[in-house]
Amino acid sequence: MMAGSRKRPREAWMQAVHCLIETVGDCREWQGRMSGKTPVHSAPAGFAFEGSKAGATGVRGLIYEERHGTRVPTGHVIRMRCRNDRCCAIEHMMVMTIAESVQEMSRRGELQTLKAQPGRLLAARNRPTKLTMEIAREIRLSTNSMTKEAALRGVTRQTIGLVRAGKLWPEAANGASVFSWRPAA
Ligand SMILES: [Zn+2]
User: Fold this and answer.
1) How far is the CA of 4 from the centre of ligand 1 (A)?
2) How far is residue 107's CA from residue 162's CA, in Å, rounded to a whole number?
3) Distance 88 CA to ligand 1 centre (A)
4) How far is the CA of 169 from the centre of ligand 1 (A)?
5) Span from the CA of 24 to the centroid of ligand 1 (angstroms)
6) pLDDT tens for residues 33-85?
7) DSSP string for residues in the chain
8) What is the whole-number distance in angstroms between the Cα of residue 91 and the centre of ligand 1?
9) Which residue, 5, 42, 129, 158, has most beta carbons within 10 Å?
């Protein structure tokens, strides 16, 4: 399956996991299989974590472990602040106990008003498109720190960074032609 790869099998498999994650707005959306509201991927024995059996494993847990070098603590779950079921963005993860997660759901009104969710979800997914070209220009010209600019605009530091690097709204860059514009990969 991983023929031709010089990487160790676990690394190659993890790379394949990353290839199934796509940037959508501020979110990183899983393009693979879902188990209910949870992104999952099938893992050979011992790939999800040491001693794990072959089978579906949660993608968020893999991303979390990769970043933090440790598994999500026992008795804890990952919840996404963006409410996006397919999202695997490490920045959107909240690690909490199961009891806390129930409180959190209730606090957000998820249990009572299920229809409130699509609105919030849309807001997170569409965030970068909330920036007009005009605002993108202002962000590029501003001398504010990324943190200050992000707070000012109500977007993440990552978005500000992408705008300044010309990866988001490159058509707003000085001298850019609308004809040469391509969305960032
Ligand atoms: Zn997200």
Assistant:
1) 33
2) 32
3) 6
4) 20
5) 8
6) 999 999 999 999 999 988 999 999 999 999 999 999 999 998 899 999 998 99
7) --TT--S-HHHHHHHHHHHTEEEETTEEEE-S-EETTEEEEEE-TTTSSTTPPSEEEEHHHHHHHHHHSSPPPTTEEEEETT--TTB--GGGEEEEEHHHHHHHHHHTTTTT-TTHHHHHHHHHHTGGGGS-HHHHHHHHH--S-HHHHHHHHTS-HHHHHHHHTTSSSGGGSTT--GGG-----
8) 8
9) 158
pLDDT tens digits, one per residue of 89-121? 999 999 999 888 888 877 776 665 555 556 566
Q: Which residues fall within 8 angstroms of residue 24, CB to CB, at 6 or more apart? A: 125
Q: Which amino acid is at 73?
A: P
Give me ligand 1 centre to Cα 125, in Å: 7
The CA 90 to ligand 1 mean position distance, Å, reads 8
Domain ranges of the chain: 9-113, 127-180
Report CA(3)–ligand 1 centroid distance (Å).
Answer: 33
